[in-house]
Each structure stands twice: as C-alpha cells, then as structure tokens.
Amino acid sequence: ASPLLSGSRSSKTFKPKKNIPEGSHQYELLKHAEATLGSGNLRQAVMLPDGEDLNEWIAVNTVDFFNQINMLYGTITEFCTESSCPVMSAGPRYEYHWADGTNIKKPIKCSAPKYIDYLMTWVQDQLDDETLFPSKIGVPFPKNFMSVAKTILKRLFRVYAHIYHQHFDSVMRLQEEAHLNTSFKHFIFFVQEFSLIDRRELAPLHELIEKLGSKDR
Questions:
Q1: Which residues of this UniProt protein bind Zn(2+) (predicted)?
Q2: What's the predicted TM-score (pTM) here?
Q3: Annotated binding residues for Zn(2+)
C-alpha cells in the first residue's frame, strides 16, 4: 500500500479511524480501490467497478475519505486553534456555520476546530449507523442513502477547503502537500464522477479544482 493509504507517514488521526471489516465484500472493494489508485489513473480509479452496487461503492469510498481527511487534519490540529481560526472559513469569502438538523437546528457560528469537531463527530455517527451504512452482506441500503452520502461529502469538502485556505503553509512545512493534493484530487474526481456535490459548494476551491482537472484531460 502507498503511504497515502496506509498512513505510515503520520499515524495521528483527529478521530478514531473507521475500519471496514476484513473479509467483507466492502473490504474487497476497498482493496480494489487501493489497487486501481496505485495505477496512477485517478479518473479510472473512481469509476464504478463492473457489476458492483453504486451505493456500496459510494459507501466504501466515503469511509475512506473520512479516514484520509481525519489523518490530514490530524497532522495540523496544533495550528488550527480557537485563536488562529475563530471562525470556520475557507478564505475571506466563505464562512461556515454549523447545524446538524437534530442536536443543533439553527446554524451556529463557531471556531474552525469546534466546527470540524462537530462535523467529524457527526460523520462518524452516520458511518457507525448500521441502518445507513450496513456492513453486513445482504442488508440493503436505505432509500435516502444517496442524499445522506451527498451531505457527508459536502461537509467533508469543507475540511479540505479550510486546510487549503488557512493552513497550506503548515502543510508545506510538514511536507504533506503531495499527500493532501493526491487525497483531494481523488476526492474531487470521485464526487465529479457521480455528481455528488453541487458546483456552488465547490466554489471555495474552484481554481484548484480546475487546475487538477486540466492536468488529466
């Protein structure tokens, strides 16, 4: 496995890693994803493998992106503090307020570390919910799975956006930029392949996304 996937470079994660049970079909899918990623063709690597279930493919990759972002953010938590990032932003034009629709219904303004803590805990709770992300063979995905996955990915994107806009200098000092870029490029190609995030939501990193895409045409 590459350092990107095995996490050998930095075992610091922000939240506990979410493991896909070994021996399960989803684990096989994850292995397939890792193998195709190794080929270096990301556009091809994100495509739905022949004969596979779209929901399952999206579920496996969503867990994987959660783990990747968890690790990337884990490396910079000491630079993302209440005082350095009093609001959750992605550059001067984009500010995010947190609401999850259940515990916090009305969006609240909070610091970036607090927001990301809320966000990652919320994602973790969704991933751990067997009715939303069934790990057992033959258990069907719920009817609303796609909309749940879209909300998770839309929110995970915000963590990338915050890291790029507010902490890229720290990422460079840690020599993690190749790792961040590969992870983000994989994420973007994936959400583009299945139209999972609205273009408006991607606006804070629009230029970077254009640049990543143009190299691969």
A1: 80, 85, 162, 167
A2: 0.91
A3: 80, 85, 162, 167
